[in-house]
Amino acid sequence: MAVSVSRPRPSPLTASVQALRPAERLCHATGLLLVLSGLVHLVVFAIDGGPWDGPVSWRKPVTFGLSFGATLIALTWVTSYLRIAERTRTVLLGVFAADCVVEVGGITLQAWRRVPSHLNMQTPFDTAVSMTLAVGGGVLVVLLTVFAVASFRRVPASPAGMALAVRSGFAILLVALASGAAMIARGVLLTRTGHQQAAYHSTAPLKPLHGVSLHAVLVLPALARLLSRTAWSERARRRAVAAAVGAYAAAVAAAGLWPLVGR
Question: Structural domain boundaries of the chain?
Fold first, then answer.
């Protein structure tokens, strides 16, 4: 008589990983490696020391590694809610992941060389790295704008508040893209006109706005997802997401006004 052996059920985390498409697994793995890179350089900063601010510091590989890694993981998940062809989404995510690696890699390389990564035209090699990062930033703007436009089409209404969270997250992300483009444009203009040091410091006023608005696309959908696991009614969850959107928008506005208030 054959004896049936019951297999243990996979944990929710294992089941979630197994449900991912190969492209999604690759993006998640890449995002985790970028986050790990940021954490490693945080240890390097703790050991080596040096300034945290300024165009040459360990801050840049730390913050860019953590930020790009978290954003790649978030976008891989959040775009699964968008009405977009799967093949198109796979291609866009693949390009986005490659661009994230190029951006963090260029910044990390220049940090180890102890030279500025952005707006640095001192040597042909530095110019090549700087221009690569600038072009990569342009690619990011195009890709994320495509996803943002897609988010304002049909988004699943379940879980409650997810549609509002996704659309608001992408709308606020556009603010991050605009502020980032403004920083690059102003810095390049100053560099081209011979004001190199002024170019390095010209990005400071927009950094708070850029940093705060960058991660709404992760925070707001994650909140909607967490609320779906509570016993709250759908109406209460929608109100909570709407309140979170309002609070995040207020934080973005405060970050944008902070340089003016500081002055």
Answer: 22-154, 158-263
